[in-house]
Design a protein that fits this description.
The chain is of the alpha+beta class. It has one domain. The protein contains two helices and three strands. A three-stranded antiparallel sheet has the order 1-2-3, with helices on one face. The protein is elongated. The protein starts with a helix and ends in a 7-residue tail after the last strand.
């Protein structure tokens, strides 16, 4: 999937939590399900540099690695599960 597609998916996710005058100032998700939408998962924006944790890393190797945030993983994990694009460290093959 191209990175452009990730941006389109993010725009759809944002649209689904924005209120609309046509829906009585509710957002589409709240209007269709009746539940208040949790917006706390919107901590990152597309392609934002982030760090992710590798629990299996042993000293002296760093257990934090660089990555880029891509979007929400709707089909896996909980609401705070994301897709990321990992970046190679200098010297990695």
């Amino acid at each position: 999937m191209q990175y452009h597609n990730w941006m389109q998916l993010w725009c759809v996710d944002v649209h689904n939590v924005l209120s609309s005058k046509n829906l009585g100032y509710q957002n589409p998700l709240c209007y269709s399900t009746g539940y208040t939408t949790d917006i706390s998962k919107f901590q990152f924006y597309p392609w934002e540099p982030i760090w992710y944790y590798i629990p299996s890393a042993k000293a002296p190797h760093n257990n934090l690695k660089k990555a880029r945030w891509l979007g929400f993983a709707h089909a896996a994990g909980d609401e705070m599960t994301y897709y990321i694009q990992t970046e190679k460290e200098p010297g990695e093959g």
